[in-house]
Amino acid sequence: MTDYKPFPDEFLWGGATAANQCEGAYDVDGRGLANVDVVPIGEDRFPIIAGKKKMFDFEDGYFYPAKESIDFYNHYKEDIALLGEMGFKTYRMSIAWSRIFPKGDELVPNEAGLQFYENVFKECRKHGIEPLVTITHFDCPMYLIEEYGGWRNRKLIEFYERLVTVLFTRFKGLVKYWLTFNEINMILHAPFMGAGLYFEEGENVEQVKYQAAHHELVASAIATKVAHEIDPENKVGCMLAAGQYYPNTAHPADYWAAMSEDRENYFFIDVQARGEYPNYAKKKFERLGLDIEMTEEDLKVLKEHTVDFVSFSYYSSRVASGDPAVNEKTAGNIFASLKNPYLEASEWGWQIDPLGLRITLNTIWDRYQKPMFIVENGLGAVDTPDENGYVEDDYRIDYLREHVKAMNATINEDGVELLGYTTWGCIDLVSAGTGEMKKRYGFIYVDRDNDGNGTLKRSKKKSFDWYKKVIASNGTDID
Ligand code: P53
């Protein structure tokens, strides 16, 4: 057994899920329909989440995995008990907006929705688990999309403010760590899923995306303000789908391409962490002829209410080229990337790069000097359970171990400030990118397949005991 240096005493080890990917019960206790409900599995999924194909309701001939998902709504006690058994210090989860405001523009929240989350948070506390709550993880009530056009409409800032005010008030003392928007940069890559945007023929897509992004950025700053007003103990973070871009070669044009791709994503965090639109973004808007409406008041709130910490998901690094002729993309990811010949890839083509995590952490630290939180990381893989539901997932343990080592080096050798680590899909759930159940990340296996068959029975994988040991030893015993 190799001994590693320990993580900080207060380090928040845990796992992460999102409402739409695990709760199910999509029409129960007054919940309204949301964008994340009407995205089916299959070949139309990508054009739908990209806002290119219209799907505003369930249609015949499709399967919608989020309707039932793994039914966390009815299994949360059992599931949280298992997380507690692993020794989780924190559990990242999200609120389904349409459980709280079924249409989105009501004045009075739905008590049954609030009660559900109160029960979940209390259950976490019972097991000594600190909740880490994503306010919106891709959710947008369908009514707001049909009536207002989703986040393209400024009115959404007001509705979001109403949502967060209700949440911070009701859950004061129960929840302290909040994230405003999951993977806020997803608006560029999957705008219907990320921000409820559907594009009509002939529309200026960039104009709509960046206007919507501005609304989300302002909403996020307002949320930070309100969170601190309601409870000074609240800590609010932004959340980026991260993963450093490498240049394809040492050619300066490739370096420039990599830097430009990184800026597309860091743009959001530059605003949320520094409080100002960076010059490169203003110039880009000018170049593209975009006219983003923003008020003096918007700029003030952005400046005055930056986030307390920077969180991100990290699965893979990426590669960019400045040479238009080089365009062999890797499969299976929403983010464009070339193949990296030095890395192996998952069954879904996501390139595995633990050192890339250290590079990404250091880059973000150098850019913002704010505490960081890795709120997603993990390996989506096909698991084959035995008759008892046990999976020998050594491949997952290997992936996580290498990333834990990289984090350890970043903290103990490089000196960055890292608050915690929540692995993605700590219990198997529906994939956001593909809608599959087959792409599993969990320590806990859930008996359910891509077509919705299965008993929903939960069972522990080999990685369950491994992660339990990692947490118990505060990252020193990881073999
Ligand atoms: P799935 C793509 C690239 C990076 C992060 O993804 C992404 C995606 C979307 O697929 O999303 C995050 O389930 C997201 C989670 C998602 C997770 O990555 O496609 O925050 O909702 O499940 C993993 O394998």
TrEMBL record:
- Catalytic residues in the record: 376
Q: Name one Pfam family in it.
A: Glyco_hydro_1
Keywords, alphabetical: Glycosidase, Hydrolase
Family according to the record: Belongs to the glycosyl hydrolase 1 family.
**What's the name of the protein?**
6-phospho-beta-glucosidase
